[in-house]
Write a structure and sequence with these properties.
The structure holds two protein chains of two kinds. Chain A is mainly alpha-helical. Chain A is built from 16 helices and four strands. By secondary structure, chain B is mainly alpha-helical. The chains are: A mainly alpha, B mainly alpha.
């Protein structure tokens, strides 16, 4: 058991943290270049080879590691030094409960492709996220700079506010899938449902035979479209990236909470943002986009089809690989969506960010919970 | 010693030390608040050892996360310095606090001597299902009363704050 957990954790670290996060910095550069009609990152080279700018992340790391690490005069030294670590570690460990594959049986042994699957899975992500706030707040306070302090204050207010609405906006998903475990949610989405089935279950109207065969994947986004939009908005606000980057609004408070950071300590803030982009993509995929499941093709169908040609063990292995690739594809699409939003929308004003949270998303999410509860009650036939 | 026992002592020592750190750091309010965070998180670790997993997660989320961040927010907004605290005024409070602590210690240690053995845990203990069922069946009246009380407290705080602004 410990060996299994270590292998899975290493897999996440290598694929997600060491693999995807640097590539994302490249994607972000390229995407910003495309959207601003520039040629983009193509200068870093090794012996004349630029590899479409893919060497830029490497150059970034070398630059950040060799830069001087400055602690400003009058700063609280200990807090200034540990704040970036507190910001970066939660971003990495939040990934442990997100499944990157289903549950497979190899000759009597069951393997669930998720590093940890506690009963309270999603709450773990929220708890870890609330600890991440301290990195930002400590960085803002300990730098002995008023701009930093303002950035830290803005960050703490923004993250506390959006934590509330983020939790409320996914309560509907808990109610639909009747669980908090992310692997169970993904398993529940590995099927299809009739597009017009709700007519029968809610209003007792029989579905016409012609429409009855139209099936959609049983993804969370089809049960909770409003919840999907609200969760995406709130979790992006939690990550403090544009358009929600008021804690580091350059035009008002220079760079906010990480103004006084240099070298790799700045790099840690930078990296934690990008790792969180991956975590957000993984979470949204698992909660709303079916996780690792292939739309319209359930695990049993895939294994059944392949095992006609090969033995079952081989078919299960192929199925696991297909599921993992499907999960990564969905994650990459969600990363692309976040990048596109980041380079499309201008920064909200600070009061607009707060109004969006408390005056729009909070009432909507409570209404969403109420309606979801009523619909579930009606669909079960209870009153 | 088993692993849970070792972990209990680690978390317990951490909780006590960070609580002391909070009290002794009272002039450096931000450091005191950060010590409080460590106390809250180590208490969450002890809750995990007691199989109360949901309480542990809520402890980190609500106390470790939200409430202390709000403390920090206020402390940072006021930007208190150590010389903002007048010395010597709190002598009587300190004496009262020490007496109260001694009394509490005596009471608690009396409880430790005659501590009944643990009953076996019911299946699913500490999960969100059991807590939810208990809160919304046996204790539903108390939940509603508490929520009403909290709403009243929020409204009261708003009225008090608004009077000062107007």
């Amino acid at each position: 058991m410990p060996v299994e957990v270590i292998v899975k954790s290493l897999f996440i670290l290598l694929v997600v943290v060491a693999g995807l996060a640097p590539v994302i910095t490249w994607i972000e550069r390229k995407q910003s270049a495309v959207m601003q009609d520039r040629i983009g990152a193509n200068r870093a080279d090794v012996a004349g080879l630029t590899v479409i700018g893919l060497l830029h992340p490497l150059a970034d790391v070398i630059k950040l590691l060799t830069k001087e690490d400055v602690v400003p005069y009058g700063a609280n030294r200990i807090m200034h030094l540990i704040a970036p670590v507190i910001a970066a570690v939660p971003a990495v460990v939040a990934y442990t409960v997100i499944p990157y594959g289903g549950v497979y049986t190899f000759g009597g042994e069951t393997i669930s492709l998720v590093a940890a699957n506690p009963d309270w899975g999603l709450l773990y992500v929220f708890a870890i996220g609330s600890i991440a706030t301290y990195g930002t707040v400590m960085a803002g306070w300990s730098s002995n700079n008023n701009w930093s302090l303002l950035g830290g204050l803005r960050a703490s207010a923004q993250m506390i506010s959006y934590e509330v609405t983020m939790g409320l906006s996914v309560v509907g998903i808990f109610m639909v899938f009747q669980t908090l475990q992310l692997q169970e949610m993904a398993l529940a989405q590995d099927t299809t449902l009739r597009l017009f089935g709700f007519l029968e279950r809610l209003f007792g109207v029989p579905v016409p035979a012609l429409l009855g065969w139209i099936r959609i994947p049983a993804w969370g986004v089809f049960y909770q479209p409003l919840g999907f939009l609200m969760f995406l908005a709130t979790i992006m606000a939690e990550n403090k990236r544009p358009p929600f980057d008021t804690p580091e609004g350059e035009s008002e408070i220079i760079a906010g909470y990480h103004l006084e950071y240099s070298g790799m300590r700045f790099g840690l803030f930078f990296m934690s943002e990008f790792i969180e982009v991956v975590v957000i993509a993984g979470l949204v995929t698992t909660l709303f986009l079916g996780g690792w499941s292939v739309p319209w093709l359930s695990q049993a169908t895939i294994i059944g089809a392949i095992s006609k040609l090969f033995n079952v063990e081989f078919a299960t292995g192929i199925c696991a690989i297909v599921h993992f690739l499907c999960f990564m594809l969905k994650v990459v699409v969600m990363i692309w969506l976040q990048m596109a939003l980041r380079w499309t929308l201008p920064r909200f004003r600070y009061d607009q960010v707060m109004d969006l949270c408390w005056k729009i998303i909070l009432p909507l999410s409570i209404a969403n919970i109420l309606v979801t509860g009523l619909v579930i009650l009606l669909a079960r036939g209870g009153a | 010693m088993t692993v849970p026992a070792i972990l209990f002592y680690v978390f317990g020592a951490l909780a006590v030390l960070s609580a002391l750190g909070m009290v002794l750091n009272v002039r450096n309010t931000v450091a005191a608040a950060m010590s409080l965070v460590v106390t809250m998180v180590s208490l969450a670790g002890i809750f995990v050892l007691l199989e109360a997993h949901l309480v542990a997660v809520i402890q980190v989320m609500v106390y470790g996360g939200a409430i202390v961040v709000l403390f920090l927010f206020v402390v940072m907004l006021l930007n208190l310095r150590s010389d903002d605290f007048a010395p010597g005024r709190a002598r009587l409070q300190k004496l009262a606090g020490a007496l109260l602590a001694i009394w509490l210690l005596a009471r608690v240690s009396k409880g430790f001597v005659s501590f009944p053995p643990w009953p076996p845990l019911p299946p699913g203990f500490g999960g969100y299902r059991q807590l939810g069922v208990a809160l919304y069946t046996d204790y539903v009246l108390l939940v509603e009363v508490v929520s009403l009380l909290l709403t009243a407290a929020i409204v009261g705080a708003l009225i008090l704050a608004k009077r000062r602004i107007d």
